[in-house]
């Protein structure tokens, strides 16, 4: 039997964000935008969805009088990513 996929992480951009945060633990909006190639609006919406699910935390502050949005992966986000990877493996192993 195939393991169910987390539909929140099944989105290419949200999966990219989580994958990046798994590697660095914390990243600012500019870094995520540059690495994913997403527009500011789309990236903002997707990080809000991940935050609402508890997969990441968002911190808004200022750096040199400019807004700074920093995202950090949570334990729940790490577990969701690990479960997603295991689910994908179950599809590969069945073929």
What descriptors fit this protein?
alpha+beta; 95 residues; 3 strands; 4 helices; three-stranded antiparallel β-sheet; elongated
Would you kindly provide a brief summary of this structure?
The chain is of the alpha+beta class and 95 residues long. The chain has helices at residues 12-24, 29-36, 40-52, 75-94; strands at residues 26-28, 56-63, 66-73.
C-alpha termini separation: 12 Å
Q: Percentage of helical residues?
A: 55-70%
Mean pLDDT: 94
**Strand percentage:** 15-25%
Count of extended strands = 3
What count of helical segments does DSSP give?
Answer: 4
- What best-fitting shape do the alpha-carbon axes yield? elongated
The largest β sheet comes out as: 3 strands, antiparallel
Strand order of the largest sheet: 1-3-2
Order of secondary-structure elements? HEHHEEH
Report what the structure shows.
The protein is elongated, with a radius of gyration of 14 Å. It has 95 residues and is α+β, with helices and mostly antiparallel strands. A 3-stranded antiparallel sheet has the order 1-3-2. The longest helix has 20 residues, at 75-94. The N and C termini lie close together (12 Å). The protein is built from 4 helices and 3 strands; from the N terminus they run αβααββα. The model has no long low-confidence stretch (mean pLDDT 94).
Topology:
Layout lengths: L11 H13 L1 E3 H8 L3 H13 L3 E8 L2 E8 L1 H20 L1
